């Protein structure tokens, strides 16, 4: 393929890209002449060049499309959606042809007669009906259209106003173009003229000349940036004389004859042409004429701007603001980038050496090298930066097609198209973005009828926005559609085996939504042409993750969906903080680091532990911490006094990473890790530091995902909520399920050891009770109504309760959900096995008593347990539990009973005091701290003031436990302090405090 | 005739096809990679490229090198990525005749059999021909 052709193809594709978008905006602003002019010119250039390169199919399609555009421009045809559709069809055809030519170097075989006939019929003013008619009687004519149509048009229009306006008579600009096409082909074929004309830019000349003549014979005003004399300047300099002009004149006559221009119009054109002789050949003498012309030019509104690459030298002066650009092969830029990356590295190494030497003669030059390298790096980066709008160019077209195809009304709003990002990144997000927009349009938005029914505007809106934030670009895709159907996704995920039913029940809505990023999961019920093929969001996510980005998802059923994509501006060089943990150094990308905190054991910021979970108080908030050491599973023990905490932001979620040391920041070149290490989520790559050593680059996303508990919280919790989570708050996790009847039932999740699914066929009977082999033991099974036999088939979920080495299973019908809820027990349940009822998730729910079922399957559960747990204890210990929350009283009672204690409960301290007056025989007292009236501290102080309670162990039970609280509790007289939800700790504490022997040992 | 770089691991001679060898390096400073598969000894810097070092001893299920014993690095490229094979010692390049080639004895340890292309009978012993690509078979790639 020769250079000319490939140049043309590149230009044509670029032009078509723009056309798509421009036509859509034309549809919305039909009266924008600048837009129309620009669209027309792109198509015209394609037509002109393809004629020149002998690509007849391309030429004829482009020409027919141009015909319609010409009529739009002249106001003869109205811009309607149907017409735009037709032109888009023509552009599609051109695209196909151009692509085919790009592949094979020649035009593919084929026939565009139908399309051309349709276009021509439209151009002749028939509108839709005419085009349809042509459809029915296709014209079997694949001759270049410009030969046939202008003649037809000419004849049709000529009788009306031939003498008044030659321009209209011949069928407007399109015909005139045909004439000038033909004329300049003849000129360039003429051996007398060719040497002269080839000195200048004939393409431009042809367009300008044509526009000039059109203006003279009654057409629209020509482009102000050009005049007929300046475009001929090169030819005049090359020796264009009268005799040549005569020859051109003769060619014009021939060209008009070829296109069968009506005689009256031909005469008019010839006259005008002859009149331009002086202006062209002797522009200086013809100054007055030119002045008039430029005056006219000033009056005429600037119709548009020429693309910079088409700017001929002669016209440069007229448009000094035009940006100069050249085309550069991307590979060249890429290799430039690589070289610069290496240069940056070498610079860093040199700087490192320099830092170690106090004074050196290299100081000055190195400093300059440093500066120049930085500038070079910046400039090279700049060459790679492109506005994100380049990746959006096709989207309006896609959305338009979508809305027609799906019969939906869709508005696409694009904000921040000028936001720049790295070309490589841009390429990689182009497809994911397109896919996501399709998704939003296809199953995000509802049909107009559904929208109206839901009380929304008929037209759905998809908003695409981009902005810079730190070293990232944030792209948001938002629709105001129906939102993601959580239930449907859940069902689908279960059906596809991505998650078991029981597991799914344990997931939050946010976690379930994440399933749309898994392969093979499409929520579209029907596979449309557009989406729903089950490929997509997984690819989207993997593409985005590949470039170090993240996708977040927010969805509200009925309100819409929002995807937030965060991607780094560039991939090649990042600024990183070098940290040390266990004697190894790691690089932490700086854009995810929000601050550094130095902590010491003695002063200032101090790391505190809750049940071995480290947290840091930072400006009155609790920051969850992860230890890099722990994450990396290294067994090197370092005992340093101080620890640094890197406060890291992943999405909207903050956490701290504990490291041993922090060095300075360095610009690093990210290198991919070897294939066999790619599964390690903690690392995003490796790099070579200034001193030549290899370090691994930490991936904050990976760290967040790998540290238990942090991953799921990503993007939904802020540090505040997180702190609550860690401290344990008033809410309880409840496992809600159905069994027996329709009333939802619940257990505190903590009581349930596991949820299993069993095949009922595997149930065996021993001693008349249902059993199943479970982990090498027989596990008794019981139904919620207490029955132990089963007459059903299939699989059933089973809640497994474990106590030390024994287990039992409670068969239920269906796991409904796991909810976080503050539980207020409303009524005391009369039914054995229930604690009471509560409103959970808006529904009345029975709270069940686990100990009831435990006793049901094993009469000796308590006693046996007591023996196991407490050895030779004969008398069970009596405990008084003081707590104002009925839920906790109800929850702890069965738990403590199951552990072999005899327990009495009261709901506040005053009652407790009275109770103790009458019945003092308790081995220990367990008391809440926050209670109405007398609080726990006052209660224990009151107890301790009386002699007989001096030595009774009193354990504080609290939902908040900081060192300070514990200290205060000790001072008040508590023996120990337990976090409310931590049953094991409570049991341990009771075990030691109620057993004098153990107490002494401890 | 095939040419091999001979290396020694635990007194056993192995051959690595000479065409796949890019560099031979002495003991290098390694960066430990936590969480990596056990045979990944670390990463090293070879003229600006990061090379993943694989300890062949671990790969073959042998005891680790004695304290203080140095390891040699034979750098090979697999699937566009450089890997360094850590061995005890590097010998010379030998051209071996196909006549002396034998299939792996079927009694050979499974792990060894996977990595070895076959054996060459030499005058002073046997040489196991490494199939470099098999060092990076699924097990190791997926092991992470």
Main β-sheet of chain A: number of strands, strand sense, barrel status?
6 strands, mixed
**Percent of residues in helices of chain A:** 40-55%
Q: Which segments of chain B are poorly predicted (pLDDT under 50) over 5 or more consecutive residues?
A: 138-144
Unreliable residue runs of chain A = 133-163, 286-322, 525-535, 711-730, 862-874, 998-1002
What is the approximate shape of chain A? elongated
**What is the β-strand count of chain A?**
35
The portion of residues assigned to helices of chain B is: 10-25%
CATH superfamily of chain B: CheA-289, Domain 4
CATH class category label of the largest domain in chain A:
Alpha Beta
Compute the separation of the termini of chain A in Å.
89 Å
What would the CATH topology of chain B be? OB fold (Dihydrolipoamide Acetyltransferase, E2P)
**Oligomeric state, counting identical vs distinct chains:** heterodimer
Report the portion of residues of chain B in β strands. over 45%
Number of domains of chain A: 7
**Which CATH C-level class of chain B is it?**
Mainly Beta
**Elements of chain B, N to C (H/E):** EEEEEHEEEEHEEHH
Number of domains of chain B: 1
What overall form of chain B do the CA principal axes indicate?
Answer: globular
Descriptive report:
The complex is a heterodimer of chains A (1002) and B (144). Chain A has 1002 residues and is α+β, with helices and mostly antiparallel strands. Chain A has 36 helices and 35 strands. Helix content of chain A is 45%, strand content 22%. In chain A, the strands form seven sheets. Chain A has a six-stranded mixed β-sheet with strand order 10-14-15-13-12-11. In chain A, β12 and β13 form a beta hairpin. In chain A, α2 runs antiparallel to α3 and α15 packs antiparallel against α16. Chain A is elongated and about 130 Å long. Chain B has 144 residues and is mainly beta. Chain B has one domain: OB fold (Dihydrolipoamide Acetyltransferase, E2P), CATH 2.40.50. Chain B is 14% helix and 49% strand. Chain B has a six-stranded mixed β-sheet. A five-stranded mixed β-sheet of chain B has the order 3-6-7-5-4. In chain B, a hairpin with a 2-residue loop joins β6 and β7. Chain B starts with a strand and ends with a helix. The C terminus of chain B is likely disordered. Classes of the chains: A alpha+beta (1002), B mainly beta (144).
């Amino acid at each position: 393929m020769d250079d000319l052709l490939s140049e043309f193809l590149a230009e044509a594709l670029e032009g078509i890209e723009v056309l798509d978008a421009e036509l859509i905006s034309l549809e919305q602003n039909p009266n924008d002449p600048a837009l129309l002019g620009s669209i027309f010119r792109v198509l015209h250039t394609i037509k002109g060049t393809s004629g020149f390169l002998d690509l007849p199919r391309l030429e004829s399609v482009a020409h027919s499309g141009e015909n319609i555009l010409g009529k739009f421009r002249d106001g003869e045809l109205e811009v309607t959606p149907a017409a735009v559709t037709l032109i888009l069809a023509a552009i599609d055809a051109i695209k196909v042809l151009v692509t085919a030519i790009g592949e094979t170097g020649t035009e593919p075989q084929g026939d565009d007669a139908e399309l051309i006939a349709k276009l021509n019929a439209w151009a002749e003013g028939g509108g839709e009906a005419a085009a349809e008619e042509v459809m029915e009687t296709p014209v079997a004519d694949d001759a270049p259209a410009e030969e046939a149509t202008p003649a037809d048009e000419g004849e049709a229009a000529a009788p009306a106003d031939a003498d008044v306006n030659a321009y209209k008579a011949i069928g407007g600009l399109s015909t005139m173009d045909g004439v000038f096409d033909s004329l300049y082909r003849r000129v360039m074929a003429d051996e007398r003229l060719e040497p002269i004309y080839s000195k200048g830019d004939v393409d431009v000349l042809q367009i300008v000349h044509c526009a000039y003549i059109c203006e003279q014979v009654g057409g629209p005003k020509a482009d102000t940036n050009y005049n007929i004399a300046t475009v001929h300047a090169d030819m005049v300099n090359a020796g264009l004389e009268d005799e040549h002009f005569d020859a051109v004149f003769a060619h014009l006559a021939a060209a008009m004859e070829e296109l069968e221009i009506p005689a009256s119009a031909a005469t008019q054109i010839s006259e005008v042409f002859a009149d331009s002789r002086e202006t062209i050949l002797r522009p200086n003498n013809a100054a007055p004429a030119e002045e008039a012309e430029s005056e006219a030019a000033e009056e005429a509104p600037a119709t548009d701007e020429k693309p910079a690459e088409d700017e001929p030298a002669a016209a440069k002066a007229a448009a000094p603001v035009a940006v100069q650009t050249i085309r550069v092969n991307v590979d060249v830029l890429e290799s430039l980038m690589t070289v610069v990356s290496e240069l940056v590295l070498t610079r860093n190494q040199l700087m490192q050496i320099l830092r170690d030497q106090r004074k050196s003669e290299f100081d000055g030059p190195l400093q300059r090298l440093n500066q120049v390298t930085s500038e070079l790096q910046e400039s090279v980066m700049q060459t790679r930066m492109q506005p994100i709008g380049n990746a959006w160019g096709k989207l309006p077209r896609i959305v338009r097609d979508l809305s027609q195809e799906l019969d939906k009304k869709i508005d696409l709003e694009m904000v921040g198209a000028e936001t720049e990002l790295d070309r490589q990144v841009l390429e990689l997000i182009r497809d994911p973005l397109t896919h996501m927009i399709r998704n939003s349009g296809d199953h995000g938005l509802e049909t107009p009828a559904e929208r109206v029914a839901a009380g929304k505007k008929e037209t759905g809106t998809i908003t695409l926005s981009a902005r810079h934030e730190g070293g990232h670009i944030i792209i948001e895709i938002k629709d105001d559609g129906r939102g993601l159907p959580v239930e449907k996704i859940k069902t689908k995920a279960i059906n596809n085996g991505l998650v078991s039913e029981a597991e799914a029940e344990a997931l939050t809505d946010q976690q379930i939504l994440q399933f749309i990023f898994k392969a093979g999961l499409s929520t579209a019920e029907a596979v449309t042409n557009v989406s729903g093929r089950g490929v997509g969001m997984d690819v989207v996510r993997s593409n985005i993750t590949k470039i170090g980005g993240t996708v977040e998802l927010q969805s509200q059923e009925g309100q819409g969906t929002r995807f937030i994509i965060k991607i780094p501006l560039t991939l090649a060089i990042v600024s990183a903080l070098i940290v040390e943990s266990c004697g190894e150094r790691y690089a932490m990308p700086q854009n995810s680091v929000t601050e550094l905190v130095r902590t010491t054991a003695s002063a200032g910021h101090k790391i505190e532990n809750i049940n071995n979970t480290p947290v840091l108080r930072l400006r009155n908030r609790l920051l969850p911490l992860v230890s890099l050491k722990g994450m990396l599973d290294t067994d090197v023990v370092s005992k340093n006094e101080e620890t640094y905490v890197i406060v890291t932001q992943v999405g909207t979620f903050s956490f701290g990473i504990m490291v041993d040391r922090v060095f300075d920041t360095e610009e690093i070149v990210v290198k991919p890790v070897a294939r066999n290490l790619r599964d390690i989520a903690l690392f995003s790559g490796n790099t070579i530091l200034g001193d030549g050593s290899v370090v691994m680059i930490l991936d904050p996303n990976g760290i967040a995902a790998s540290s238990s508990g942090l991953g799921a919280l990503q993007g939904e919790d802020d540090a505040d909520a997180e702190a609550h989570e860690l401290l344990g708050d008033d809410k309880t996790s409840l496992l809600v399920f159905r069994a027996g009847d329709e009333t939802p039932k619940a257990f505190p999740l903590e009581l349930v050891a596991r949820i299993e699914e069993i095949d009922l066929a595997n149930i065996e009977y021993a001693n008349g009770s249902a059993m199943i082999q479970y982990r090498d033991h027989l596990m008794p099974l019981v139904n919620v109504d207490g029955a132990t036999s089963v007459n059903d088939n299939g699989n059933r979920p089973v809640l497994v309760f474990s106590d030390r080495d024994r287990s039992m299973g409670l068969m239920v019908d269906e796991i409904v959900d796991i909810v976080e809820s503050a539980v207020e027990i409303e009524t005391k349940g009369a039914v054995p096995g229930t604690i009471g009822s509560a409103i959970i998730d808006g529904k009345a729910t029975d709270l069940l008593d686990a100990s009831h079922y435990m006793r049901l399957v094993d009469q000796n559960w308590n006693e046996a347990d007591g023996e196991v747990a407490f050895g030779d204890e004969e008398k069970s210990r009596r405990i008084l539990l003081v707590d104002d929350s009925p839920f906790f009283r109800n929850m702890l009672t069965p738990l403590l009973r199951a552990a072999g204690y005899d327990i009495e409960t009261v709901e506040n301290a005053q009652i407790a005091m009275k109770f103790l007056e009458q019945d003092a025989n308790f081995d220990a007292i367990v008391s809440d701290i926050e209670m109405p009236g007398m609080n726990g501290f006052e209660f224990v102080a009151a107890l301790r003031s009386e002699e007989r309670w001096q030595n009774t162990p009193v354990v504080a039970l609290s939902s908040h436990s900081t060192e300070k609280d514990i200290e205060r509790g000790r001072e008040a007289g508590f023996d120990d302090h337990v976090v409310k939800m931590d049953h094991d700790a409570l049991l341990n504490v009771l075990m030691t405090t109620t057993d004098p022997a153990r107490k002494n040992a401890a | 005739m095939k040419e091999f770089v001979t290396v020694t691991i635990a007194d056993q001679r192995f051959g690595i096809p000479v065409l796949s060898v890019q560099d031979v390096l002495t003991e290098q400073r390694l960066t430990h990679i936590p969480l990596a598969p056990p045979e990944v000894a670390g990463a090293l810097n070879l003229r600006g490229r990061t090379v993943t070092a694989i300890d062949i001893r671990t790969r073959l299920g042998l005891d680790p090198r004695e304290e203080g014993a140095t390891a040699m690095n034979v750098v090979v490229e697999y699937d566009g990525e450089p890997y360094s094979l850590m061995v005890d010692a590097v010998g010379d390049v030998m051209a071996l005749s196909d006549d002396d080639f034998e299939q792996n004895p079927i009694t050979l340890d499974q792990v060894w059999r996977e990595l070895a292309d076959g054996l060459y009978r030499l005058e002073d012993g046997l040489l196991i021909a490494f199939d470099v690509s098999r060092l990076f078979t699924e097990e190791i790639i997926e092991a992470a």
